[in-house]
């Protein structure tokens, strides 16, 4: 993962994730996904707990902190042809403060340097889709399921 570690210009910091961060990552993931997937009639907490347990890897994740408090996490899976933004969650009170924009700018800079476009899955009703589209993402795969795939063009 190649996002800038340490203090950022916007007053937040990234640090390497560890297995000790899993409980925080899981809680934030569930808190984010439950209302979205419930609205689609697709919420199954046990399924999504198991899903994250099987995909969380500290080496591909960073914890986002501000003022000494963990406020989010991001996971980027490095693949030969793409940078998969697998997880990106920020606590409600810290959304809309520029953190997501700054991290996405870093990801897009890396994508341009490595010629690997970022992609990201998202529930089809997730408001973040509009944010991603403003950054140049397009719906890449929509097979009618609850999750769509976005790809940066």
Secondary structure layout:
Elements: E1 6-7, E2 13-16, H1 22-39, H2 45-55, E3 61-66, E4 69-78, E5 83-90, H3 99-114, E6 118-123, H4 128-134, E7 137-141, E8 147-152
Parallel strand pairs: 5-6
Antiparallel strand pairs: 1-2, 2-3, 3-4, 4-5, 6-8, 7-8
Helix pairs in contact: 1-2
Biggest sheet record: 8 strands, mixed
Number of strands: 8
Show unreliable segments. Answer: none
Shape: globular
Cα-based radius of gyration, to the nearest Å: 15 Å
Q: How large is the count of helical segments?
A: 4
- Name the helicity range: 25-40%
Mean pLDDT: 94
Percentage of residues in strands: 25-35%
Q: What is the CA-CA span between the terminal residues?
A: 21 Å
Helix/strand class: alpha+beta
**What is the string of SSEs from the N terminus onward?**
EEHHEEEHEHEE
What report would you give on this structure?
The protein is α+β, with helices and mostly antiparallel strands and about 150 residues long. It contains four helices and eight strands, in the order ββααβββαβαββ. The protein is globular. The two termini are about 20 Å apart.
């Amino acid at each position: 993962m190649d996002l800038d570690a340490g203090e950022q210009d916007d007053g937040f910091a990234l640090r390497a994730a560890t297995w000790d961060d899993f409980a925080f990552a899981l809680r934030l993931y569930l808190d984010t996904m439950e209302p979205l997937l419930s609205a689609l009639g697709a919420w199954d907490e046990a399924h999504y707990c198991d899903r994250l347990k099987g995909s969380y890897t500290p080496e591909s994740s960073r914890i986002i902190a501000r003022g000494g408090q963990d406020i989010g996490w991001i996971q980027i899976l490095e693949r030969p042809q793409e940078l998969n933004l697998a997880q990106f969650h920020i606590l409600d009170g810290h959304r809309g403060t520029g953190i997501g924009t700054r991290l996405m700018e870093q990801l897009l800079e890396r994508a341009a340097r490595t010629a690997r476009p970022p992609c990201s899955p998202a529930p089809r009703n997730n408001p973040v889709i509009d944010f991603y589209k403003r950054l140049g993402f397009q719906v890449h795969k929509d097979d009618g399921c609850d999750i769509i795939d976005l790809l940066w063009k």
